[in-house]
Design goal:
Residues 10-24, 577-594 have a biased composition (Low complexity). It is found in: Nucleus. The chain is 43% helix and 12% strand. It folds into seven domains: 42-108, no CATH class; 208-312 and 670-701, Nucleotidyltransferase, domain 5, CATH 3.30.420; 319-459, no CATH class; 460-566 and 630-664, no CATH class; 568-627, no CATH class; 715-750, no CATH class; 796-954 and 975-1099 and 1125-1160, Purple Acid Phosphatase, chain A, domain 2 (4-Layer Sandwich). The chain is globular, with a radius of gyration of 37 Å. It is of the alpha/beta class. 35% of the residues are buried.
Amino acid sequence: MTDASPMRIDGSTTGHGDSGGNTTADTSSQGNQGLTTPCPPNVSTTAEAATKGRKRSWVWEHFTMVGGGDSKKARAACKYCGTDYAATSANGTKNLIAHILKQCKKYPNSIGKSQSTLAFEFTTDGGSGDLFAVPFSVEDCRRALVEMVILDELPFRIVEGEGFKRFMRVVCPKWTTNKIPSRMAIARDCFNVFLREKKKLGKALRGQRICLTTDTWTSVQNLNYMCLTVHFIDDNWTLHKRIINFCVVDNHKGVTLGRAVESCLFQWKLKKILTLTVDNASSNSSLIEFLKDKTKEKKDTLLENEFLHVRCYAHILNLIVHEGLKELDESIAKIRNVVRYVRSSPQRWSKLQACAERETISSKSQPCLDVPTRWDFTYMMLDKAQKFQKAFERLEEVDKNFLPTLREGEEDEDGDDGNCGQSKKGKNVFGPPEREDWIKVRLFVKFLQLFYDAALRFSGSKAVTANQFVPELMLIRDTIEEECLNENESLKKMAMDMKSKFNKYWENLDNQNLLLYVAVVLDPRYKLRYVHFAFKGLYHDISKVDEKTEQVKDALVRMYEAYLKNEKGRDAQNNMSTQLSQGSSGSSSSGPLSVRRSLRMAQFMREIEEENSLEKKSEVERYLEEGLAKLDGYFDILNWWKANSCRFPVLSLVARHVLAIPVSTVASESAFSIEGRVLDPFRSSLSPRMVEGLLCAQDWLRSSSTPISLQKALEDVEEFEKLDSELGELTIADEENPNASLVKQQQQQQQQQEVPTLTWPENSELDLDWIKNLISTFDWSSKNLPPSEFQSVLPVQVFDTLILAASKILHEEPNCLTIDPDKSSTAVVVGDIHGQMHDLIFLLKQAGFPSQNQFFVFNGNYVNHGAWGLETFLLLLAWKVFMPDRVFLLRGNHESKYCTSVYGFEKEVLTKYGEKGEHVYQKCLGCFEGLPLASVIAGCVFTAHGGLFRSIPLTQSKTSKGKKKSRKLSSNSEPESLSLGSLEELSRARRFVLDPPVEGLNLIPGDVLWSDPSMTLGLSLNKERNIGLLWGPDCTEDFLKKFNLKLIIRSHEGPDVREKRTGFGGMDEGYTIDHVVESGKLITVFSAPDYPQFQATEERYKNKGAYIVLEPPNFDNPNFYSFEAIAPRPQVNPYYDYVNVIDSNKELDLASMDPIEELP
């Protein structure tokens, strides 16, 4: 993982970015590249010494021996505070360890007990909030550990594991091993969390009218569990789902379940029950009758529980789908045969891929096996397999074992049939699918898509589903009706069987809960008109349609009247009590007279309200007479009722409760299963009381988290199948040749994945999708292809088109860009990247892609020192072509012919494009020439790669035509004659040169690209680099003041340079503030973390990269974002002699360059 740390230069923080972290210097070892917390001394840092074959204690790394050579008087002095201790062999190291861990206040890793640390506020969306100070607390650590055990379903024993203890010593060394609670203590804490959260939930449920669902589970010991869940919409019109009971029941009989539900409701003091959703089992009918009988006489019961029973939509949908699957049983079994055949070995899978390539099948999805009890997996298998029909048919021709194996059947080692499909009827089916089978399946997949989408929509618990039930039901019915007319007899019979099952449950309105139709009426987009429309399609008899529509309306009116009677009077009493309390507190006296006055006024207002109600229409009538709301995909029914509850105070109560009705008893992860839910072995081993506590607490703690995405889960299945196949191949490779496992894995990945090839858009206009595809393709090729095959990813023709389009834009831009973001935009400034493409991709995602409200200024040095300079440069050119007025690319000193020939870019291009490499390289050099030199952002921020530049006097002498000058600096370049240049002079400079000259009239480009700041006042030649200038703080002040600027942001210096510059800060955090003067600041930013790439890990600087964000309205208060390198990087051979050519302080060997002819 990488982290980013926003920090203003004044020490304040900002919350920009997607994830947070800290800006502590990276002191991690090679094996822990993601960690920024220093490794504590008591973990895994014991130095292995060869002294007498014994281990030397880690503590000696922190002490120095003193006291001369007398071993009897030897003492050890702390390296940090100087305290010394007796250190003879008889003394041991106990005192030394205690000193480092508990006493030494100067030890770098020491944190006082009362000292706070900085952390980012946790957010439920996985991001990070504001930075704030957090004091260390053992109680907080323990609470977080308990919640982790509950949420992640971990066994209690995890806290006693050696791995966990080691992990905690690293992440939280202050929480020592003896303070970590035992597994029994954790178990008690988990149950206490359950009790604490139960108390909170009890208060929230008080007075709520709720809807219930039941679900049954089974443990590995065959114990029966009943799960009871409440669904309700709160006063703020937010839908909630909470498990309130998970208990053992003796059996699944209706009366037994009814008593369990009654007991749970009594325990939670829940009296207002609207509906109970159960699956379609006879025992559940007994459950409903039991509860009706027990609660119908209670005062909080509505209409004697007439609408209590709701059938589970997902369960009935499963029954209908499986009715259809029976007709295609044999065709499905045959397709399962061929899928199992190719999935049974990597060799067979490779043959299928080869056949797919020959048939030009471009689908990236892979055929996968289904799960017999999950019809959604069967749908997924059929959907993916039918795309490979021609590949399977070709496999019959090229694989001599294909047909014999399928026709004879193949047994696994355990004796099970390996390639013999079995139908639902128990009949063994051999052989591959015929053409007729493929036709049936292809038609059935289209048909099944409707049921698949419906199951996804109605099995969730985070969105209202009751109002969508009838529209979805009608859509399914219409589709079945159409398939009943299909010319294919098999599909026609399948549809007829499904229609019969459909009519059994849903044709007769008397068998359905009318509240599901009332929910449609309470949707302001549908109201009663859609119900009438739906019944016309169902019954075809207008008199029956009118009768059924009136029946639904009557149900709504009766509900409204029941609420008017049972709810409104209570609300009025509450309002009166509120008025009385307000009147008492607001009056000068609080005696009986004040109370009587308030009561009298309340009675008067009620009488007026009752008189007016006789003259007005009811809320139901007014609601139904109003026009329909706009029918679109962005409509939020809960927000609509929230906004209109003041106009329909009683009807909105009806809506709030009816819309909370769940149409399914199960969550999305089990919506497709025809089997029950099974408790995992760990929880099955616990007591029923503890099981209930863990499951309920987990549900309550997760209540604000993102719901489970079934689609993502299905995608994970496919990804894990790929991984399993890779691991199988890797195991075989290890057995055959342990040293070839990595090579084998890379070869396998190349075989399994089609090499993506980028093409230029047909309309020649780039868009965001093309850019994202470019990013993912470059990232994939860097990890899966050798550099020599890069041209298969980006053909030369596409390269030429891209670089031509970008060059035209760049060459037309001025030397110094004027960038004017508006008050709603931000500007991001990026420093040296040096071919570290993966870090650039992270930076773009972290900061946010360029957009109309986000400008990007890249400060040069895109290539050299890294393995992906070409990809980095081309990615930025693509952004430039896509958003030319939002993305700006400045030139760096490495965008030159000399530097690219020495520091790897030329060789990189030649390696990646082979014979065409020279052509590509020359095109890149031509593009380099067009890169602007500097920019001014918002009129107050000057950016350039190197920095400031000199003024060129117009009276300077010229060389005679045809003559060349020597490398000796001319007299006009002497320090006493140097003065700062102006922006006007910068605009006139001739930038279209590959290697800037060091003398003559065109010195400004070399200054801008190569100059460095200094702590010495004045302007002088940069003799260390042999090109450019050194300028002091006074020059920074003069430049800022003269051009009314606030900031100068430059790059150019990495950690290798900065470690040799006295008076300047290091580049550990990716940025430094070099000059702070009256008018503003000078800043250096470097965006290549863990630099340079090709050096050995232990020899790198382990620096962070950084970028700067300038925000409105003034854009002059920079926010710094530090981030660590993406690890691990793909392994690539270096493109230059990084051992000998490493010092970027002396990057120009002027003697090796041809003399440059002075400008005429």
